[in-house]
Design a protein that fits this description.
Helix content is 36%, strand content 16%. The protein has 352 residues and is α/β, with parallel strands linked by helices. Strand 2, helix 2 and strand 3 form a beta-alpha-beta unit. Helix 3 runs antiparallel to helix 4, helix 3 runs parallel beside helix 5 and helix 5 packs across helix 8. It is globular, with a radius of gyration of 19 Å.
């Protein structure tokens, strides 16, 4: 039977697997990418990871995410992760019934419901390091929401990611213990870290998923200056971070076989990391992605994505059925990875 997963690993992670397999105690970090509805495909694997494999162990990896990845990891950090992940999936699938020409205000109101599905009431475990990533507009982008302003930011990014740092600042909201990731943001983006708690969790999570031009910015987060706070994926789409500084390995459930650093880098293939050409930052990473064989079984031969809102328009029931079908098929990812973890075979691992 064809596997539902592709496993890729950096050189250090592969050597670890060859020597001693893989155990929960080996995992130091679990990142979760932005990517909208594509993240639904990973929730069955999340349920196995946090409801079975890591449950009842002393392993407390750092959980970090942006946009839907932040919502998934916030759910995973709850005292009852399975219930929180189920609430998120139901809200994400069922609450997004937009009108035909939904504007940013309508989308923003729905983002509040999605954030509340995992953050209200706030029940994150105090012993789990959780990091939620958002972005704050600065410089010439500060206070602007028009296409021209974001086009300037995109043009700056095309010249170099460091230039995007003149337009956006990284905001990290942290709960739980300290993490080796804290303070290791080695790039041109000014970074602030603030506590994540019951008072600001909904606002921070909503900001982390607020896509410019589609959704209104979050202007007020308790304890922070009034500003425009945007989707964390603008800077950290797939969270290409200094995982090499972390103790242990990084386990990355993902929907691609590599990392695209920022959302605007989707259009710049030379910015990609991994995909068989990994770098030192990814040496300790194990990445698990859907296989081409699994994708072929999904509706329209692909993961759910934002284009489905246009494909199905007001046929909300049909879109919801397609997304539920995709999640059901992606249960095979969890099953196949669980079998592999039980007896890891390095021959099944591709280079990251």
């Amino acid at each position: 039977m064809n596997s539902a997963i592709r496993i890729r690993a950096g050189a250090r992670a592969l050597e670890h697997i060859r020597r001693q397999g893989l155990a929960p105690a080996d995992i130091g970090c679990i990142p979760a990418a932005a990517g909208g509805p594509k993240g639904l495909a990973l929730i069955p694997l999340d349920r196995w990871l946090f409801g079975e494999w890591l449950a009842g162990t002393d392993a407390k990896p750092t959980l970090i995410g942006a946009s839907i990845g932040a919502w998934r990891m916030t759910a995973a950090a709850q005292a009852d992760p399975l219930a929180a992940l189920d609430r998120l999936a139901e809200a994400y699938i069922g609450a997004q019934r937009y009108s035909l020409r939904a504007g940013p205000a309508e989308v923003a109101a729905t983002m509040v419901k999605l954030a509340e599905s995992v953050a209200a009431p706030w029940a994150a475990r105090a012993d789990v390091p959780l990091r939620v990533v958002a972005a704050r507009a600065v410089g010439r982008l500060a206070g602007r929401t028009d296409r021209r302003a974001f086009a300037r930011a995109a043009l700056a990014n095309s010249s170099g990611r460091s230039r995007l740092g003149r337009h956006l600042q990284r905001m990290v909201f942290a709960s739980g213990p300290a993490s080796a990731l804290d303070g290791s943001w080695d790039d041109a983006f000014a970074t602030e870290q603030h506590a994540l708690d019951a008072g600001n969790a909904v606002a921070a999570l909503r900001a982390s998923g607020s896509i410019p031009l589609i959704c209104e910015a979050v202007r007020e987060i308790p304890g922070l200056p009034v500003a425009h706070y945007w989707d964390g994926g603008l800077i950290d789409y797939h969270l290409h971070l200094r995982y090499d500084r972390l103790p242990g390995l990084t386990l990355y459930p993902h929907f691609l076989e590599g990392l695209i650093p920022g959302w605007l880098d989707k259009f710049l293939p030379w910015r990609r990391r991994g995909f068989g050409k990994g770098d030192d930052w990814l040496a300790g990473m194990i990445l698990v992605a859907p296989s081409p064989e699994l994708l072929a079984r999904l509706p329209h031969g692909k993961l759910p994505d934002r284009n489905d809102f246009y494909r199905y328009a007001l046929a909300h029931d049909a879109r919801e059925r397609a997304w539920r079908q995709a999640m059901g098929e992606c249960q095979r990812m969890a099953e196949d990875f669980a079998r592999w973890v039980e007896k890891p075979d390095p021959a099944q691992v591709l280079p990251l």
